[in-house]
User: Fold this.
Amino acid sequence: MNNFSFYNPTKIVFGKGEIAQLDALVPKTAKVLLIYGSGSIKKNGVYDQVIKALGKRKVTEFEGVEPNPYFETCLDAVSIIKQKKIDFLLPVGGGSVIDATKFIAAAALYEGKDSWDILSKQVEVKQAMPFGSVLTLPATGSEMNKGAVITKSETKEKLAFHSDKVFPQFSILDPETTYSLPKRQITNGIVDTFVHVIEQYCTYPVRNQISDRFAESILQTLLEEGGKVMKNPTDYDIKSNLMWAATLGLNGLIACGQPEDWSTHMIGHELTAFFELDHGVTLSIVLPGVLRVMKKDKLDKLAQMASRVFGINEGSRTERADKAILAIERFFRSLGAPTHLSDVNLDASCIDIVVERLEKRGWALGERHNITPSKVREILTNRI
Amino acid sequence: MNNFSFYNPTKIVFGKGEIAQLDALVPKTAKVLLIYGSGSIKKNGVYDQVIKALGKRKVTEFEGVEPNPYFETCLDAVSIIKQKKIDFLLPVGGGSVIDATKFIAAAALYEGKDSWDILSKQVEVKQAMPFGSVLTLPATGSEMNKGAVITKSETKEKLAFHSDKVFPQFSILDPETTYSLPKRQITNGIVDTFVHVIEQYCTYPVRNQISDRFAESILQTLLEEGGKVMKNPTDYDIKSNLMWAATLGLNGLIACGQPEDWSTHMIGHELTAFFELDHGVTLSIVLPGVLRVMKKDKLDKLAQMASRVFGINEGSRTERADKAILAIERFFRSLGAPTHLSDVNLDASCIDIVVERLEKRGWALGERHNITPSKVREILTNRI
Assistant:
């Protein structure tokens, strides 16, 4: 097991009816900025529950955070915070809304000239505004971690930052808020969680029994519940398991003591930035390519996953690894997720654009830092 | 899945050499009370590592915290804190030392007349001194939770308290510090962890896939590594997995959304209080009795555990449950843990004493609050 440190102070309040807890969780005298997306929370009753729970607190609304939230949008929110002397942020929505809030929280108190430096130059976040979240779309894990991904519309750059200062103080997870999600978002959420777990698991073994088994537990749960959710979108237990799985998939826990390989996300971010694909869509396309091209490096874990997660016990390690990768592709397709670039009307010409950007950044991805731009070309060529 | 809330702000720093991190984790100007037990840390090099890492900080020592720490001992530490104007506590040891520190941290700032009320009357802890720990004996999970168990020597009462104020700020877990543990303490630690997990798992199913599988992951790891550790006491990976298992066994995580049954611990505490048995010893004796006597109530989970943890797939659910209980007893005995009262020279006469105490308290234990004193009699009679 590798050395590690783990720290996660976010309080999770989970279950039906728990949005009412906002009254106990948000300071009584807070001037709240309620941050949300396209307004679906006004149709499914979540908005009403939130407003009711906030009672007499002064609430300003900031609507319109887009998927893959823009830096420019965040700056608009920062202006409002300064104008209205807001002192508490409350994102209500999915990972995009919470990610935007993390950046807004940091940018509002940023003392430098240009808060984009937090992303582009990884300038340390020294302070951030307090916030708690109400999650309505399980996927990114943002509700219980310290990371966020923001896109600069102007330059089509999608970049991440991490800081202990932007852990949500609390996150409320009520599975009933996910009943009305469109199928596409359910699929994206399951794929996103699945890939998060794979990226912290499918590297090389370090005799880390607990993190391995915890990761396998989440994968098994996604396979089990993911196979049922489309036909049972208002089954409380299915939705509960998927929601908690998404949070645990990226709250730091299963990364403890493990090597990690975030190449699927890094390649996917470029596809989203250039071609405006859903984040989840890029992952279901890229992951099988990463696993195939890097199969030799990941063979032990692929074979372990084949057996423990998919019940594939026959054949050589390589055969089992191949079967496991096929099983993942089949699972993604069963959810309606694309697995090839052609599924989203992209052809080989997109590859140069992505590879060129990675070459410019000088990134070598993967647990062994050997996923070079030329390997990325191989990976994406596998996905045409 | 049941509603739940989860909050755990303790920072874990895990791995060989990490005691040196104390210099970064303890405030530079702290006046530290270093709290430890019988002095084994002076023999195995841990004390030297700690003193070196603390550098020029002013350190006062408080030696002699006993297993099942006494309230009276804690009060001695509180006096020293007041005399020496200590402002940071640093327990170095196992669960007893950390539990004692939690109580000391609360008692030092307690404004009432008698700090025993925190335990006997469950008076709310409003403030506590800051502290971080160095763990040297994986077992209780105290290094990453908010609970502590303290014994009043005078009245032979062993009672618990819980408070968000007594989470350690940090805990350093270096598996190498556990290389020199005597066999008895390794056994007690594995049994304690195993029973913690069972008490949060072996109740009735609530379709909580993740918490179930996480619990099973820890049990599987204990079986796997517990079977090897006695012959390989200095195997870093075995010790790492056992150490992390113990922390995760009682940090609140696997309890999320689950019913719980702490009857084995509650009955065990009385056996320790009256007969001075090791905590772990009481658990390996009591648990099989609880599972046998409450088998009907726990049948679904016992059968699930039989299959998923022990690979027992043949026979009816009742047969599988029986086999799982036998497998647990065999595992405990393979570690050298006693499983009957006669193994520790107790006979039926001890039962009345325990049952009488529980009757006085009016406790009905278990996930369905149906483990009444007369059920406890049945459980202990099963263990003669």
